[in-house]
Amino acid sequence: MSNDPIVVTLRLTPTDANAFQAFLAEILPDTRKAKGCRFCKTYVGRDNAGDFLLLQEWDSPADQQAYMAWRESTGVLQKFLGHLAKPADVSIWTLDPA
């Protein structure tokens, strides 16, 4: 297993942008404090304020997987998914040595 960081990109379309933004403001401080989280940033669509991009970098896949398991066990993941109008478009990236 590589020690390279991973970047998780989620493209999100919530059913209610304002409620979703408030929900993110509530939960993301804990994400940013999670073991291995290097950063967690949220972007709102310039052309469509109802589109969100959530960008996270983690020290390792294991740290990100442990975080997701914790979010699932607390019920926050289900609440997060309940805000979405369609499934999240998730991409996971690894560092390219170029």
In short:
With 98 residues, the protein is α+β, with helices and mostly antiparallel strands. The chain is 39% helix and 29% strand. The protein has a single domain (6-94), classed as Alpha-Beta Plaits (2-Layer Sandwich).
Mean pLDDT over the residues: 91
How many helical elements?
3
- The percent range for helix content is 25-40%
Shape: globular
Q: What does the main sheet amount to?
A: 4 strands, antiparallel
Q: How many individual domains?
A: 1
Beta-strand residue fraction: 25-35%
CATH topology grouping: Alpha-Beta Plaits
From the alpha carbons, calculate the radius of gyration and give it in angstroms. 14 Å
Q: Which regions are unreliable across 5 or more consecutive residues at pLDDT < 50?
A: none
Q: Which CATH class?
A: Alpha Beta
Tell me which CATH architecture applies here. Answer: 2-Layer Sandwich
Going by helix content, strand content and strand pairing, the class is alpha+beta
In N-to-C order, the SSE pattern is EHEEHHE
Report the span from N to C terminus. Answer: 19 Å
Major beta sheet, strand line-up: 2-3-1-4
**Number of DSSP E strands:** 4
Give the arrangement of secondary structure elements.
Elements: E1 6-12, H1 17-33, E2 37-44, E3 52-58, H2 61-74, H3 76-82, E4 89-94
Antiparallel strand pairs: 1-3, 1-4, 2-3
